[in-house]
Automatic annotation (TrEMBL):
Domain PPM-type phosphatase per the UniProt entry, residue ranges: 206-423
Keywords assigned: Hydrolase
Lineage start: Bacteria, Bacillati, Actinomycetota, Actinomycetes, Jatrophihabitantales
Organism name: Jatrophihabitans endophyticus
Protein name, per record: Serine phosphatase RsbU, regulator of sigma subunit
Listed PANTHER family: STAGE II SPORULATION PROTEIN E, STAGE II SPORULATION PROTEIN E-RELATED
Length: 442
């Protein structure tokens, strides 16, 4: 025989129920609530009993304009009173008031269950709520991740398209080279010059580049430089040297430069991770060569001034030199020799950064500028710094030509690429800032 529950047992059951329950009357005055409801809404029973629901839980001012949270919920509550039928709102946003007039965004599943008296009229309504905020947040996070994945796929597709276009260009160049009767110096140099970049205009940076070919046979092709304006407002610059001095080195240089350009444009990662992408691509695409490179980005500092932060990473390449506004210089040495590209694709290279003041310049160069048979590399680097400091009052092409004139003779054993990045003083601009791209002996 089943024994009917007593009023005390019903009250105990109401209190022990883990779901949030609240009871209101026909006038939407709150009469009772269980502990689960009080915990979910951060209220005390004495604080809500006998009060109008929407006096206790007022509309959130954040969503009041154009969206009335209370109106929809009140309509459902009154529909339960007038119709005597259960009502439902799914994943309904209703913010909970906190201290000092603040509100916490919350989402609920709301059930209104009428309780009828002996005459069949609605006497009370059981307000059953389930806090589903965490479910909504999880779905929003999944949707956000899905949108990010779609955006990444678009960027990868754009990079792959650029790579295919560059590969097609190289195929055409290689076909023309195969049809040539001789792979002599002039052919290799023409290929090299065709692949060097026209520098962008990126105020307040002034970019100047030079390339000089070796005087011996066809010893050209491995040295390169690049610069491009990125979508996030940064400017990326790169310089590198592919092993070998022949037409093959020139062709491989074109591949690496194009891949690095695509990765830098499509990614917002720091320089070290972009070089790691290039290293992996060389392995996966079977680009069988070794190369050194420096990749750097220039971006605004947090303040409103004209300073820039340079972030760079080095893959076994001669370290850049920073020339300060006062004419002193420093080698941006990253602490030791770094692994070249093509050796260990999973190498983790560090990123470094330095603040570049207006009036400063950073010189990127290949080893042909400082390596000279019968001389010490350290002495030659000291000589390069001295030349930069001696010509610190010059700018642009005049500065680059003066330094190269100090360091190089009439005939070179190795080809040389130089890229100078100058941060102009405010107002110190005249015409295009990209003062030089590839030049004749350059």
């Amino acid at each position: 025989m089943v024994t009917a529950l007593t009023h005390a047992q019903y009250a105990a059951l109401f209190r022990a129920t883990p779901v949030a329950l609240m009871v209101f009357d026909r006038d939407l005055l709150m009469t009772h609530a269980n502990p689960a409801y009080l915990a979910a809404t951060a209220k005390d029973l004495d604080e809500i009993r006998g009060r109008y629901v929407f006096d206790v839980f007022p509309n959130s001012p954040v969503t009041r304009e154009g969206y009335d949270q209370a109106a929809s919920l009140e309509g459902v509550m009154r529909a339960a009173v007038t119709t005597g039928l259960p009502q439902l709102l799914a994943e309904y946003r209703y913010d909970i008031p906190l201290a000092a007039g603040e509100f916490e965004v919350r989402y609920w599943n709301v059930n209104e269950i009428p309780v009828l008296d002996d005459a069949g009229e609605v006497d009370l309504v059981l307000h059953f709520t389930e806090d589903v905020t965490h479910l909504v947040r999880e779905r929003e996070a999944r949707d956000s991740a899905r949108r990010l994945n779609v955006d990444l796929q678009r960027r990868v597709a754009a990079a792959q398209l650029d790579l295919r276009q560059r590969a097609a260009e190289l195929e055409v160049l290689n076909l023309r080279l195969q049809q040539a009767s001789a792979h002599d110096r002039s052919t290799a140099e023409a290929l090299q010059l065709a692949m060097l970049t026209t520098l962008p205009a990126v105020e307040p940076l002034r970019l100047t580049a030079r390339y000089r070919a070796a005087a011996v046979g066809d010893r050209v092709g491995g040295d390169w430089y690049d610069a491009l304006a990125l979508r996030d407002g940064k400017t990326a610059v790169a310089i590198g040297d592919v092993s070998g001095h022949d037409i093959f080195a020139a062709a491989v240089m074109g591949q690496l430069r194009s891949m690095l350009r695509a990765f830098a444009w499509a990614s917002e990662e720091p320089p070290s991770l972009i070089l790691r992408q290039l290293d992996r691509a060389m392995r996966d695409l079977q680009v069988q060569t070794y190369a050194s490179a420096v990749l750097a980005t220039f971006e605004r500092t947090d303040d409103a001034g004209a300073r820039r932060v340079m972030r760079w990473t080095n893959a076994g390449h001669p370290a850049p030199i920073l020339l300060r506004p006062d004419g002193t210089s420093v080698v941006l040495d990253d602490g030791g020799p770094a692994v070249m590209l093509g050796v260990l694709p999973e190498t983790r290279r560090p990123d470094h950064e330095v603040v570049v003041e207006p009036g400063s310049a950073v010189l990127f160069y290949t080893d042909g500028l400082v390596e000279l048979r019968g001389t010490d590399l350290l002495d030659r680097t000291v000589a390069l710094r001295a030349s930069l400091e001696r010509h610190h009052t010059l700018t642009g092409a005049a500065r680059v030509d003066a330094v190269m004139g100090d360091m190089l003779g009439a005939e070179l054993d190795d080809d040389v690429a130089v890229l100078l990045v100058e941060l102009a003083v405010t107002g110190d601009f005249s015409g295009r800032l990209a003062t030089s791209g590839p030049t004749g002996d350059l």
